[in-house]
Amino acid sequence: MTESGLPLAGLRVLDISSFIAAPAAAVVLGDWGADVIKIEGPDGDANRRIMHDSSNYPKGEVNYPWQMDSRNKRSLVLDLKQPPARAALDRLIATSDVLVCNFPPPVRDKLRLTYDDVKQVNPKLIYASLTGYGESGPDRDRPGFDVTAYFARSGLLDAQRYEGGPPGVPVPAQGDRATAMTLVSAILMALIHRMKTGEGSWVGTSLLGNGLWSCGVIAQAALVGAYLPHRPPPDRPRSALGTIYRTSDDRWLQLTIVREDKMWPGICETIGCPELLDDPRFATVEERRKRSGELATILGKAFASRDYEHWRKTMSAHGITFGVISRPQDVPDDAQAVACGAIVDTAIPEMPRTLANPIRLGFAEQQIAKPAPALGQHSDQILAEAGLSRDEIASLRASGAIR
Q1: Residue 353 sits in which domain range?
Q2: What's the pLDDT at 1?
Q3: 357 shares a domain with 318
Q4: Which contacts qualify for 236-243: CB closer than 8 Å, 24 or more apart?
Q5: Is the model's pLDDT at 97 over the cut of 80?
Q6: Of 5, 25, 165, 169, which cross-links 183 as Cys (Cβ 3.0–4.6 Å)?
Q7: Same domain, 70 and 136
Q8: Residues 211 and 348 in one domain
Q9: What pTM was estimated for this model as a whole?
Q10: 127 vs 280: CA distance, rounded Å
Q11: C-alpha–C-alpha distance, residues 97 and 127, integer Å
C-alpha cells in the first residue's frame, strides 16, 4: 500500500477520526507514503455526506470532500462499542506506528481509546490527539469545530470585521486544514523521538491553540494590553496604500505597500497622477495616513477606470506590491497554482485534479492521489493482515462488529 521511494513508506497509521482536521493530517501522511487505515463506525465518517448535509458546501456531482480528505486510505468498519470489535482493534494497534484520534475525551474514555489504554497494547505507538479546546481545562470535553474553536474563540472573527458590522463567517474547514499541518508536525517530531529513544509518545494539538497562533499579532497584543479598533470601511481605511480597490471589470485588488516612501512615486505614476507627488496633503507617510479617506477616494476612482489586466501589467511594470483577490472560479485556471505544485493530477476518474498538501521536498514527490475508499471496502484485507483468521472475521461480521 506504499511506494518505497517515499519518506513515510512502511509506516502504518490508524485514522480513528472524523471530519476534518485529524483526517486531513492522515491524508498528508498518506501522501508521503504511509499506509493509512481509515477506521469508521457502521454509519461511516460524516465527511462522506457533508457536501449534501451542509448548506455551506458547494454542491456537485463529485463527492469532492470525501475524495480530498480520504484519498490513498483503506477503510475498515468497526463498531467499537462491541467488545469483539474493540479486541480486533487492539490487534491492529499492536502492529501500527501512529494512531490519530479526535474523539472528545469522554468518548475516548468510554471506548478505552485514551493514550494510557493503547500504550499498554503497543508502547512504541505514537498517539496523535486533536481536540477542539485542549486536553485540560473547563472546556476540554466540549466538541469543537473550526468555526467555533479556531475562529470564534480565538478572536479571529472579531479581529477581521469592519466597525459596526457583524463578525465574518469563514469558509468550511479553513481552520481545520491549517490545524492538520500542526498535527502532522507533531507526529513527525514524535517519530524522530522514537528513532532516538525507541519510545512511543502522546502528541497533540487543538483548534483553539491553532486559532490563537494564527491570530498571533492581535492575540499577543491583547496579552500586553494593546488593542486595535475594528477595521474602518474601505472608504476611510487606516492606510490608503494598504487596502482594497475595485477595477472596472468588477475585480478587486489588494494594495500592500510597506515601504511607502520608496513606492509612493511609483503609485502616482501607475495611476497616471504624477501631480500627487507635489501635493502637500500627501507629502509624507504621516500626512497620507491623516488623509487616508481623501487618498482612498482618488485611488478608488483611478482603479475603477480600467480593468484588472491593465492594472496587473502596469503595477508589475512599476514594481508595486499588490495581489488580485481571486474568486473560487479562478482557481482551476490559475497557472501559477499548477506550476508550483499546489494543484496536481490524480488517479481518481471523476476528480482528475486535486489540491496537493503544501509540503515540498527536494528528495521526493507526493504520491498521486488514488480514490477514497467505499465504506468497509478493505475490512477483510486489513483484519487478515492483523492476523485474524477467516473464521474470526466471519464471526465478527455475523455479530455486526465489523462490516
Answers
A1: 3-221+341-399
A2: 45
A3: no
A4: 236/292, 236/293, 236/296, 237/292, 237/293, 237/296, 238/289, 238/292, 239/288, 239/289, 239/292, 240/288, 240/292, 240/293, 240/295, 240/296, 240/299, 241/267, 241/288, 241/295, 243/296
A5: yes
A6: 25
A7: yes
A8: yes
A9: 0.93
A10: 63
A11: 9
